[in-house]
Write the structure tokens for this entry.
Amino acid sequence: MSSGEELGAERGPPFSLTLGVTEGVERALEAAVLRHDASMRALRGAIEACVVELHGRGMPPEAVLVTMKAFVRHTAVAHPPYGQFPSSWAADVFMDDIVRWAILAYYRSDVPPDSSGRYGS
């Protein structure tokens, strides 16, 4: 191809990229997925711990969901990632996962109700 020709969009392989840059993307993407997986496991564990605590105090499932959504949005705004502006977008991006984890954790909780029907002590 001469330097005067315009390269068109490529919607599938083979792509007009050198091996060096494609390998760089492969390594970076693999590392990002691994870090994302670990951070999502940590987030899920933290959410589940909160839900178990609220459930153990007798909070009904609907109230747990409302509380967790408000708490996570508040936390995202109050503690933005270093160098970022306060925003609830981080919470909103993961809210579907957070709601699903909260529901699963609530109904998986081993904390039995006491004689009053309340959970935990």
Q: What stands out?
A: The CA atoms of residues 12 and 113 lie 57 Å apart. The two ends are 75 Å apart (CA to CA).
